[in-house]
Amino acid sequence: MYKGRRIGAIIAAAGSGSRMGGDKPKQFLNVDGIPVIAKTYRAFADCDMIDVIYVVTGEDMMQQCKNHMVPYLDTKQLKKFGGIVSGGNERQDSVYNALIAVKEQGGVDYVLIHDAARPFVTGKIIETTVKAAESRDAAIVCVRPKDTIRTVDETLDRRSLMIVQTPQGFRFDLLMNAYEKAYADGYYGTDDASLVERIGVHPALVEGSYANIKLTTREDLPSVTRIGKGFDVHRLVEERKCIIGGVDIPNKKGLLGHSDADVLTHAIMDALLGAAALGDIGRIFPDSDEQFKNADSIKMLEQVGYMIREKGYGISNIDATVICERPKISPYVEEMIENIAKALKIDSDRINIKGTTTEKLGFTGRKEGIAAEAVCILNTL
Ligand SMILES: Nc1ccn([C@@H]2O[C@H](COP(=O)(O)OP(=O)(O)OP(=O)(O)O)[C@@H](O)[C@H]2O)c(=O)n1
Ligand SMILES: C[C@](O)(CO)[C@H](O)COP(=O)(O)O
């Protein structure tokens, strides 16, 4: 409530995100650890001035939308949920469908229209828009362009230009009239204010934020950095090969394990899987499975690399340490790096491998086994 007025919000989430691409619409992608639609909804739900929130999404996306929203909201936030409305072909059609649903459910005094694809909207922006809409009937959030803007033919005067964002807030009956007039005239606009202007109302301009971007193309997505850590140990025994980092190293004893027991490659796989929240090698390549008996770990690493890319991550770097008295690691480091880089399809300068001893202490010091640890950083592509 604001000054005793009932304030509604409509979140437009029926787009297909064709410019973003990918396997799901952008409103269902994750930003800051939660789906975009949930983050956007939360911003409105957490604002005391907002009484009820309607989400408009594609007819075929209703369930997907709920799944990406409801589990991320608390009881207080969910209390404001007015319902999900089926959208239309264009943003304007979607918003109109939601306006009709709001009206059918008793209406509100003022309504804020917001793109689901603008999850960085703040409580302050929402409040300022409500106040401006209440005093001026219509209010839109804008920022000044930072670059020079021109048409194909001429440079425009930047001082008179504004970049229009959402939310856009209106007296409810005014916006409804504007939409009805637009449809009567066959007019389509790219925002709500342009429709209201056609019936003679100029909106108040509210200062937005450069951070309140509309996620439109891949470059708009904030980069995500994830860290992973892996550790592995294998026992040294007679009559086994000593394969480390894919290099068959001449040594009196070799490493015991279900696969080829490549301790270094295993630690690296666990670091990568951990960073991507994909579990660990035990889960992906179980030692109860015969197909992994004496398996080439570099081949398994290749598969892990594929899974990481599938999840949308690139490998920023890997740093690994092999811990043993013997064999000496340094003569083989370059070859190990080459094998690992090739399997992961990354540049070799993203990988660092080193060897160390435990000064003859512990099981590595007694040459009973070899340990390896690895850390990695993944970034969204
Ligand atoms: N028929 C439509 C089209 C768009 N939108 C919503 O309007 C907002 C702004 O639109 P836009 O960035 O163009 O989203 P998309 O239409 O999804 O993107 P694209 O044009 O790249 O397909 C988005 O939150 C989008 O979900 C909508 O509710 N109904
Ligand atoms: C409403 C809007 O976000 C204001 O900048 C924008 O016009 C939506 O346009 P789109 O063509 O649907 O991306």
UniProtKB/TrEMBL annotation:
EC number: 2.7.7.60, 4.6.1.12
Region annotation (2-C-methyl-D-erythritol 2,4-cyclodiphosphate synthase) ranges: 226-381
Keywords: Isoprene biosynthesis, Lyase, Metal-binding, Multifunctional enzyme, Nucleotidyltransferase, Transferase
Binding-site residues for a divalent metal cation, renumbered to this chain: D232, H234, H266
Keyword 4Fe-4S: no
A Pfam family the protein falls into: IspD
Positions MEP for the nucleophilic attack (site feature) positions: R158, K214
Domain of life: Bacteria
Site positions (Transition state stabilizer): R19, K26, H258, T357
InterPro entries: IspD, IspD/F, IspD/TarI, ISPD_synthase_CS, MECDP_synthase, MECDP_synthase_CS, MECDP_synthase_sf, Nucleotide-diphossugar_trans
SUPFAM superfamilies xref list: IpsF-like, Nucleotide-diphospho-sugar transferases
Cofactors named for this entry: a divalent metal cation
Reactions this protein catalyses: 2-C-methyl-D-erythritol 4-phosphate + CTP + H(+) = 4-CDP-2-C-methyl-D-erythritol + diphosphate; 4-CDP-2-C-methyl-D-erythritol 2-phosphate = 2-C-methyl-D-erythritol 2,4-cyclic diphosphate + CMP
Domain 2-C-methyl-D-erythritol 2,4-cyclodiphosphate synthase: 226-378
Region named 2-C-methyl-D-erythritol 4-phosphate cytidylyltransferase: 1-225
Residues given in the record as 4-CDP-2-C-methyl-D-erythritol 2-phosphate binding sites: 232-234, 258-259, 280-282, 285-289, 356-359, 363, 366
Pathway: Isoprenoid biosynthesis; isopentenyl diphosphate biosynthesis via DXP pathway; isopentenyl diphosphate from 1-deoxy-D-xylulose 5-phosphate: step 2/6; Isoprenoid biosynthesis; isopentenyl diphosphate biosynthesis via DXP pathway; isopentenyl diphosphate from 1-deoxy-D-xylulose 5-phosphate: step 4/6
GO molecular function per UniProt: 2-C-methyl-D-erythritol 2,4-cyclodiphosphate synthase activity
Family per record: Belongs to the IspD/TarI cytidylyltransferase family. IspD subfamily. In the N-terminal section; belongs to the IspD/TarI cytidylyltransferase family. IspD subfamily.
UniProt-listed PANTHER family: 2-C-METHYL-D-ERYTHRITOL 2,4-CYCLODIPHOSPHATE SYNTHASE, CHLOROPLASTIC (PTHR43181:SF1)
Function: Bifunctional enzyme that catalyzes the formation of 4-diphosphocytidyl-2-C-methyl-D-erythritol from CTP and 2-C-methyl-D-erythritol 4-phosphate (MEP) (IspD), and catalyzes the conversion of 4-diphosphocytidyl-2-C-methyl-D-erythritol 2-phosphate (CDP-ME2P) to 2-C-methyl-D-erythritol 2,4-cyclodiphosphate (ME-CPP) with a corresponding release of cytidine 5-monophosphate (CMP) (IspF).
Official protein name in the record: Bifunctional enzyme IspD/IspF
Organism: Gallibacter intestinalis
